[in-house]
């Protein structure tokens, strides 16, 4: 389940102190297969079942996503799952939060600048001949999808510069992903979110599983936390589209299916150790 001696020793630290370990995991492309219509995404059932086995063994399980927290909870089917009673979902890169323990959402109001910027997007797409691109309103962010267009990569390249300029005029930033350009407020990313929950939970080991450029700040934070004395293990859910994370990862698996298998193997190993210790 690991890819070399360094990864093995990092995994061993997690296995030896599971109660002090936090596992952070992305949603789309990691827990949930990428589908043409993001509203029809769903978490891979094997992965959710494995997380439910890990929930009682690990210190914290946190889903860290760019999606709104309510959407992630719904599409993930996380509510009421035995074993996930203490799951935390950090939505909108940590701006929003859901705690399974209380079934409460914390959702700050949306900033006005998002709506102002969003109003300018359809005419801009039309001017660039990309009017068929899908625009997704995510509350604190606006996402332009090129996946369903005839040439997704060419459309992505056409839109990248003009959308960046538009974002800058509204004091926002563009985060590129897989055939998506996400525009959101600066200073909000998964790295900030992950660091905050690690501190809140007093975790001594951090596992982060991600697949996309949006996960890069979380990967970098795990790297920083290692220099601060914490254990860290990085797992990349690789796809044919995005290899930016795989160079940083300790473990590379193939997509949500591979993630589910890796989580199952982690649960197997932790349960075997717990059985031996009792
Ligand atoms: Mg993802």
From TrEMBL:
<dbReference type="GO" id="GO:0046872">
    <property type="term" value="F:metal ion binding"/>
</dbReference>
<keyword id="KW-0460">Magnesium</keyword>
<dbReference type="GO" id="GO:0005992">
    <property type="term" value="P:trehalose biosynthetic process"/>
</dbReference>
<comment type="pathway">
    <text>Glycan biosynthesis; trehalose biosynthesis.</text>
</comment>
<keyword id="KW-0479">Metal-binding</keyword>
<keyword id="KW-0378">Hydrolase</keyword>
<dbReference type="InterPro" id="IPR003337">
    <property type="entry name" value="Trehalose_PPase"/>
</dbReference>
<comment type="similarity">
    <text>Belongs to the trehalose phosphatase family.</text>
</comment>
<dbReference type="Pfam" id="PF02358">
    <property type="entry name" value="Trehalose_PPase"/>
</dbReference>
<dbReference type="GO" id="GO:0004805">
    <property type="term" value="F:trehalose-phosphatase activity"/>
</dbReference>
<dbReference type="InterPro" id="IPR023214">
    <property type="entry name" value="HAD_sf"/>
</dbReference>
<dbReference type="InterPro" id="IPR036412">
    <property type="entry name" value="HAD-like_sf"/>
</dbReference>
<protein>
    <recommendedName>
        <fullName>Trehalose 6-phosphate phosphatase</fullName>
        <ecNumber>3.1.3.12</ecNumber>
    </recommendedName>
</protein>
<comment type="function">
    <text>Removes the phosphate from trehalose 6-phosphate to produce free trehalose.</text>
</comment>
<dbReference type="InterPro" id="IPR044651">
    <property type="entry name" value="OTSB-like"/>
</dbReference>
């Amino acid at each position: 389940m690991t890819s070399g001696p360094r990864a093995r020793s990092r995994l061993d630290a997690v296995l030896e102190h599971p109660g002090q370990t936090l596992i952070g995991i992305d949603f789309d492309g990691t827990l949930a297969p990428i589908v043409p219509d993001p509203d029809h995404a769903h978490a891979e059932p094997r992965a959710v079942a494995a997380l439910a086995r890990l929930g009682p063994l690990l210190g914290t399980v946190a889903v860290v996503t760019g999606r709104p927290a309510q959407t992630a909870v719904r599409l993930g089917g996380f509510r009421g799952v035995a074993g996930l009673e203490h799951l935390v979902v950090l939505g909108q890169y940590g701006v929003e939060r859901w705690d399974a323990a209380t079934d409460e959402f914390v959702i700050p109001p949306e900033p006005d600048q998002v709506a102002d910027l969003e109003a300018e997007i359809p005419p801009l797409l039309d001017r660039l001949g990309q009017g068929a691109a899908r625009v997704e309103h995510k509350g604190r962010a606006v996402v332009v999808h090129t996946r369903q267009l005839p040439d997704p990569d060419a459309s992505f390249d056409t839109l990248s510069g003009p959308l960046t300029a538009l974002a800058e005029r509204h004091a926002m930033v563009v985060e590129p992903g897989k055939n998506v350009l996400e525009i959101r407020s600066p200073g909000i990313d998964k790295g900030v979110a992950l660091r905050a929950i690690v501190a809140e939970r007093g975790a001594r080991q951090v596992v982060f599983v991600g697949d996309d450029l949006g996960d890069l700040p979380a990967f970098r934070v795990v790297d920083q936390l290692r220099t601060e004395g914490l254990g860290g293990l990085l797992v990349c859910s690789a796809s044919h589209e995005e290899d930016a994370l795989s160079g940083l990862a300790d473990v590379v698996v193939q997509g949500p299916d591979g993630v589910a298998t890796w989580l199952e193997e982690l649960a197997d190993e932790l349960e075997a150790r717990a059985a031996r210790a009792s």
